[in-house]
Structure formats: C-alpha cells, structure tokens
Specification:
This protein has helices spanning 130-155, 183-195, and strands at 5-15, 20-28, 34-36, 43-48, 54-56, 61-63, 68-75, 80-93, 98-111, 120-124, 201-203, 209-210, 224-226. The chain has 238 residues and is of the alpha+beta class. Strands 1, 3, 4, 6, 8 and 9 form a six-stranded mixed sheet that branches. Strands 5-7-2-10 form a four-stranded mixed sheet, with no helix packed on it. The chain is elongated and about 120 Å long.
Length: 238
C-alpha cells in the first residue's frame, strides 16, 4: 500500500545491435473497477543500469497518460542490462476509495541476432497489493489454527468427578444477554412502582376522585381537576 514498492518483471527483450526498439507499458482497469485518477499527478522515471549497452531515446521522466508509458531505446553493443520504470500511481475505485502506490517495472534488454517480438506489457491496477493480501491470508490462517487449538483443548479437557454436584458444573447452555434478565433490576423496578405516589383527580361534574386524568370513571366527564397537595412546597427563585 502506501510507502511500499511493488516490482513487476516484464520479461527479456532480445534485439539486434543498432536497432531502435519500442516497448509499451499498458495500464488497464483492475478486476474490481480500479482506475487511474486522471486529475492526480501520476508520474514515472526511467533508469538504465548500463548506459553503454542501451541508449534511451524517450523521456526519462514525465507524467503518465491514461493509455500507458512508451519506451524508445537503442542497443549500442553486445551485452545485457536492465531498464527500470519507477511509477507513482494514484488509483481509485468506483466506490470512492483512493490510494497512492509506488510500482516498479523492470525490463531485461539483451543483444541478439534476432528479435523475440516482445513489445508490450499489460498491468492491471489493484488497490490491494500482493504483500498485503498475503498478510491477510496469513492472519486468517493463524486465526483458524488458534480456533482449532482451543477446540482441541476443550475436547481433551479433564472430565469432572462423578460426585461433583450439578450446581458446581459449568453450564453448557450459551449465555444470552437478551433472554436472561437481571433479577436486581426487576426487583428495583417493582419497588419503585410500589413506592410511587398515586395522584388523584377530582371530577368537576360529580366530584368523584379517580387516578385517571383523562375522563371520570363514573360520569365520563372530561373536566378533571388535580388535587392540591397538603405538603408545604418551597421554591427558591433566582
């Protein structure tokens, strides 16, 4: 991912001496709809290991076009050298995720009497690097092995003595927080409901007292008055 450089070997290009060759790196969309961000500063630099064997005719650095990178070079003498293209790619997916990756492409150029017709290399964009995917696979395998070890420990656990009371044996029923209620919370709720004061309302028509403030339970009158409390209430107004 960010800060890691992935190296891609593009193969060996064989060509006769004093012949101009052209090699193209095609950048294609990824399998998971990854594409190159055209508004970002995608750039590349080209390095030749031995300049006496290969003469680079194209630009040594520049911006990456949407179609890819084109290399032009000439083989000066017999021998073999490497051409490395270091790229800084800004890759985005259709879901909106964007990252910056450093990719390196290495081409082996070798002088020969005949050409092997190696002219292009296609690179598919990917947000997840190969190293990170390997790490995730290692983590999942490690997690599965730990689970297997735990299950094997439970399988080979020492059995309890037959005289052990049932109340001391561990429960085999899985705990369910939604199904099991807290007995202390239920007891406190019942105590609060019992200690809650009952407010009575007096009917304005028949004078009947009822805890229902919406309507009188005797004459169904809607005119209900709340009784005044006999307690002395003092409010400090600031």
């Amino acid at each position: 991912m960010f800060g890691q450089k992935a190296l891609h070997l593009m193969g060996t290009l064989e060509s006769p001496l004093q012949s101009e060759q052209q090699f193209r790196i095609n950048i294609a969309r990824g399998d998971n709809t990854e594409h190159l961000n055209k508004d970002a500063p995608n750039s590349f630099t080209v390095e030749v290991a031995d300049a006496s064997v290969v003469q680079l005719l194209s630009a040594t650095n520049g911006k990456i076009a949407s179609e890819g990178i084109t290399l032009k070079f000439n083989i000066l003498k017999e021998g073999q050298t490497n051409i490395t293209v270091n790229c800084t790619l800004y890759i985005c997916s259709d879901e909106g995720m964007c990252i910056m990756k450093k990719e390196s492409f290495e081409l082996i150029v070798k002088s020969s009497t005949a050409s092997n017709n190696l002219s292009s290399y296609q690179h598919k964009l990917s947000i997840m690097s190969t190293s990170s995917s390997k790490d995730t696979n290692k983590k999942s395998n490690r997690k599965n092995s730990n689970n297997n070890n735990i299950s094997s420990e439970y399988k080979h656990q020492k059995s309890y003595h037959p005289t052990t009371p049932i109340s001391l044996l561990p429960s085999t029923v899985p705990f369910n927080s939604k199904a099991t209620s807290n007995p202390f919370a239920v007891e406190n709720k019942i105590r609060e409901e019992k200690q809650r004061p009952v407010v009575l309302y007096r009917c304005g028509s028949c004078g009947m007292e009822s805890p229902n403030f919406r309507a009188c339970s005797s004459c169904q009158s809607k005119l209900m008055y709340k009784k005044r409390t006999p307690k002395f209430i003092h409010h400090d107004a600031q």
